[in-house]
Amino acid sequence: MDQHQSAVVCYRHPDRETGIRCTRCERPICPDCMITASVGFQCPECVRTGSGTGHAPHANQPRTLAGARVAADPRLITKILLAANLALFVAVQAVGDKLTADLVMLGQWPHDSFYQPTEGVAEGQWYRLLTSVFLHQEIWHIAMNMLGLWFLGPPLESALGRIRFLALFLLSGLGGSALTYMIADPGQPSLGASGAVFGLFGATAVLMRRMQYDMRPILVLLAVNLVFTFTWSNIAWEAHIGGLVIGAAIAAAMVHAPRDRRTLVQSAACAGAVLLILALCVIRTLMLSG
């Protein structure tokens, strides 16, 4: 089979183009339908009817591209992340600046009168690296980030699986916070899920390349967002770049890992990202405390 031929549509989802076919029946299948087999991918019908590789029943359980079990709702984690962001946004609108001051990404408390007496990451409040990812103040800000999460999240969650997708989102957000902490003004607060969303951009580009899809749409969209990142005022570009790099790196490990060492490679990539984030934060804390 020539996988470089013109893309056709998935036999189960006519609105989705794909360049992948079932290794048994050669029907075209999209990421939601493809099930990892001993060689290539198979469609749900071939697995269900037992016309696949002939492995034991548990070996034929549907798997995502990254090796996770196919979930009944491939948007569950995306919905939970959306709900968490929206719930915190409502709480911020109700409580006001006090909650924002307690959760915003802040390297070191600048003793500005705007803030309630508090401290920053350099003074031990490392939780701000994560809480700030779910924190928004302006309606346009959360609207843009949640639109990005809603459009990019489900395809990635479907291809990676729930746990892997959640790890991708959280580590991308933490990567954005860590780079912001490392090189930005420590007294300048930042907030929002933009770093995590840029991580999803990077992961989507990696996934599309892995699936041999036309990458021009995602590359153009990413380029437009990067232009906005560096031209609009009051944007923490460090968070965008940090999230983008971490998201692309983790996604590459998840979709390109050898099948016989897939879990090991994926776990090592996530652990490496955690260690890098911790190293940046420790170095910056020592710099600000010295």
Please provide a written account of the structure.
- This protein is an all-alpha fold.
- It has 2 domains: 1-63, 2-Layer Sandwich (Herpes Virus-1), CATH 3.30.40; 76-289, Rhomboid-like fold (Up-down Bundle), CATH 1.20.1540.10.
- The protein is 56% helix and 3% strand.
- Strands 1-2 form a two-stranded antiparallel sheet. A two-stranded antiparallel sheet has the order 3-4.
- Helix 6 runs parallel beside helix 10.
- It is elongated.
- Residues 1-6 and 51-59 have low confidence and may be disordered.
Write the topology of this structure.
Layout: E1 8-9, E2 17-18, E3 35-36, E4 41-42, H1 44-48, H2 76-95, H3 97-103, H4 128-131, H5 139-160, H6 162-183, H7 194-210, H8 216-231, H9 237-256, H10 262-289
Transmembrane segments: 165-184, 190-208, 215-233, 239-257, 264-287
Subcellular location: Membrane
GO cellular component, one term: membrane
Tally of distinct domains: 2
Instruction: Report how far the terminal alpha carbons are from each other.
Output: 62 Å
The CATH superfamily of the largest domain appears as Rhomboid-like
Low-confidence stretches: 1-6, 51-59
Number of β-strand runs: 4
Name the beta content range.
under 5%
Q: Give the biggest sheet.
A: 2 strands, antiparallel
Secondary structure tally, helices: 10
Give the overall form: elongated
Subcellular location: Membrane
Keywords: Hydrolase, Membrane, Transmembrane, Transmembrane helix
Transmembrane segments: 165-184, 190-208, 215-233, 239-257, 264-287
Protein name: Rhomboid family protein
